[in-house]
Specification:
alpha+beta; Ribosomal Protein S5, domain 2; 3 helices
């Protein structure tokens, strides 16, 4: 689990990131990010009910995304709010593939 300082929690932060952030998409994963002046990258992972209607599958996918974000977080050099959203309804994204996709999205956004 990410440290409490590295987690994005407040609804107002989510809303600001969605409204003013930049989005990048690849293989069913959508990354929103917005620069901040906090000095630390804060991350959140979202898997909606429309993507996985059953809670078991939704929570499993969220845990995989959180583990991938935890692995990537130390290499993020930017102070930013980052939201990772899984949108593929077809299947569960494996951990290794999640790390690769999120890393490439962060590189495309120039935050790694």
């Amino acid at each position: 689990m990410l440290s409490p300082a590295a987690r994005l929690r407040a609804q107002s932060d989510f809303d600001r990131t969605y409204a003013t952030g930049t989005r990048h998409y690849r293989s069913g994963v959508l990354l929103f990010w917005r620069p901040t002046s906090l000095g630390v990258a804060r991350m959140a992972c979202v898997v909606g009910k429309k993507t996985h209607p059953r809670a078991v599958a939704r929570n499993r996918q969220r845990r995989i995304l959180q583990a991938a974000c935890r692995a990537i977080h130390p290499s993020i050099h930017a102070s930013a709010d980052i939201i990772v959203i899984y949108t593929n309804r077809a299947n569960v994204l494996p951990y290794k593939e999640a790390v690769d996709i999120i890393t490439s999205l962060c590189q495309r956004a120039n935050i790694i």
